[in-house]
């Protein structure tokens, strides 16, 4: 089945130790997103790639970076994790084709990676 | 301004009851309105989407959007214990959030008692 895969599902890191989270997709979607979801809070968009174009949300900390080496893979790098970065990180994809209002392009989510910072 | 308000609950109802879940929002530019269901430790899955104002029905689920009031609702009829989950409303200015991502509510934790 076509899907969005995130690895690892659970990641434990130490305060200040860089960590990389991985997302891959078999849907061949052109847009990939990273959301941060803290406990009992709304998922919050960090950034997204529209094809190779990187779009960073204005309030995403500089500590967070992303790479998309090809259509299928996208990585979230946290350069110096703090205790406040402990959260579920969700990857999503969509096949966005433009501003047409009569179409809907569903955003598909992966299972998430739960990050613990010690 | 991107802000969506949603009561986090928990909302506990007996099996078979009609459930009403709601969100309010402040950004009048939102055009697409979605409801996602999220089970514990899983990613959100899309239940329904609606474009602009109006109603949409899919089986036991009905989504309503009132753009004039900036208010959206999800109704679940004949609720089942398997419906127990967190329900997140989400909205976007472009189709599927393609150009700007989705703005989510905090989610309502729903418990259906057998």
Alpha plus pi helix count of chain A: 0
Shape of chain A: globular
What class, by secondary structure content of chain A? Answer: mainly beta
C-alpha termini separation of chain B: 41 Å
Form type of chain B: globular
Q: What's the helical proportion of residues of chain A?
A: under 10%
Looking at how many chains there are and whether they match, the oligomeric state comes to: heterodimer
Describe the biggest sheet of chain A? 7 strands, mixed
Poorly predicted spans of chain A:
none
Strand content of chain A: over 45%
Q: Mean pLDDT across all residues of chain B, rounded? A: 91
Q: How much of the sequence of chain B is in beta strands?
A: over 45%
Report Rg of chain A: 14 Å
Cα distance, first to last residue of chain A? 36 Å
Radius of gyration of chain B: 13 Å
Tell me the major beta sheet of chain B. 6 strands, mixed
Please provide the ordered H/E string of secondary-structure elements of chain B.
EEEEEEEEEEE
N-to-C order of helices and strands of chain A: EEEEEEEEEEE
Stretches of chain B where pLDDT is under 50 for at least 5 consecutive residues are: none
Please give the share of residues in helix of chain B: under 10%
